[in-house]
Amino acid sequence: MAKIISVTGSASGAGKSTLAWGLAKELKAAVIQLDKYETFTSLPPHVAQEWLRRGALADEFPAPGYAEAIAQAHTSNATYAIVDGHLGRTHRSTAPMVDFMIYLDVPMDIALARCLRRQLRNLNTPPTAKLGMLEGHIDSYLAWVRGAYALQHARLPPLADLILDANQPVETLLRQALAAIALRFNDT
Known about the structure:
Layout: E1 3-9, H1 16-27, E2 30-33, H2 45-53, H3 66-74, E3 80-84, E4 98-105, H4 108-120, H5 127-155, E5 162-165, H6 170-185
Parallel strand pairs: 1-3, 1-4, 2-3, 4-5
């Protein structure tokens, strides 16, 4: 059975995907990205705001096929599988499969700046579309995303096996994560 390593963080822009892919390369592991399964971001803003008012429970976050993908990876013959997403052990149906959880701690303003920069760097998007994307991102952030991130920041760290300061260079984060994983699973 594969050991499931979950890479989480309080916000988009924390560096989850960057670290997840770095770990996957070093550990020769598959990556399961929550972003490929979630349908939440396509819902109308009032649905997200209502979800936030109810407490933003991870179990209500729509991601068809996500739990099944983790279960399939968990029962595979691989040594490791990396899960890239913000749910970690807060999602009841996948939490028991998570063997090691990494939380990337980053200030909200830094995460927001990274997200906006990522959208600006999307070379395949025309400039006018970029402006619309940025405006939509900022509107969502102000309407409900910031509140959801604040809840994640409160919920995820106590469940983590390793908390990393995501303001460090990626190479440093990768080295620290690999050392902690090796220690946990007695891999040398």
